[in-house]
Specification:
Elements lengths: L1 E5 L1 H4 L10 H12 L5 E5 L5 H7 L11 H24 L4 E3 L6 E2 L2 E2 L1 H12 L3 E5 L1 E6 L2 E5 L1 H12 L3 E5 L14
Parallel strand pairs: 1-2, 1-9, 2-6, 3-6
Antiparallel strand pairs: 4-5, 7-8
Catalytic activity: isopentenyl phosphate + ATP = isopentenyl diphosphate + ADP
Keywords: ATP-binding, Isoprene biosynthesis, Kinase, Nucleotide-binding, Transferase
Enzyme class: transferase
Length: 179
């Protein structure tokens, strides 16, 4: 099984709110189609959810953030997910959308639901999930990043490989020196 993160910086134009890089998305998904083993896609928010979460001051720590902000972030991520799903369908990946609320309770992962994601991937469908703004409870919400989702799923499903598709010049062996 392969776990693949599509970073928000590669699938969107972060300089312009709600601007998807549709050709880039299509090209990436064409390549992912060539992978002949079960796969799970996780995507970031880029100029969709990430943009709005910054604008509304939302963070990963549960707090009483703006309800309007929560709604705007959530709706923008559904919109971006639809773009990813449409491209995946066009590229014959058989996507199966799973919002993070399907496998998270507050900020805690639901192990049996994550195991179900693995079953779905092994069936020939491609589970697609994404970073999002989630309800925590007690009038609090928080941002669950795609990177945290990658770690959460990997801890349970133990994929053979985790791939991060990003808008960077290469792979760093030392992040501090960028070598």
């Amino acid at each position: 099984m392969i776990l693949i993160k599509l970073g928000g910086s590669i699938i969107t134009n972060k300089g312009k709110p709600e601007s998807a890089r549709r050709k880039t998305i299509d090209n990436i998904l064409k390549q992912i189609k060539k992978i002949d083993e079960p796969k799970i896609l996780v995507h970031g928010g880029g100029s969709y959810g990430h943009y709005w979460s910054v604008k509304y001051g939302m963070h990963t720590k549960p707090a009483r953030y703006s309800l309007k902000g929560l709604s705007v972030v959530k709706n923008s991520m559904i919109e971006l997910d639809k773009i990813i799903l449409d491209s995946a369908t066009k590229n014959k990946l058989n996507p199966y959308s799973l919002p993070p609320t399907d496998f998270m309770n507050g900020n805690k992962p639901i192990r049996n639901k994550i195991e179900k994601i693995g079953e779905i991937a092994r069936s020939g469908l491609v589970p697609v999930t994404y970073g999002d703004a989630l309800w925590y409870g007690q009038k609090k919400s928080y941002v669950l990043s795609g990177d945290v989702i990658m770690t959460t799923i990997a801890k349970v499903l133990k994929p053979r490989l985790s791939i991060f598709v990003l808008n960077v010049d290469g792979v760093y062996s030392n992040i501090k020196s960028k070598n």
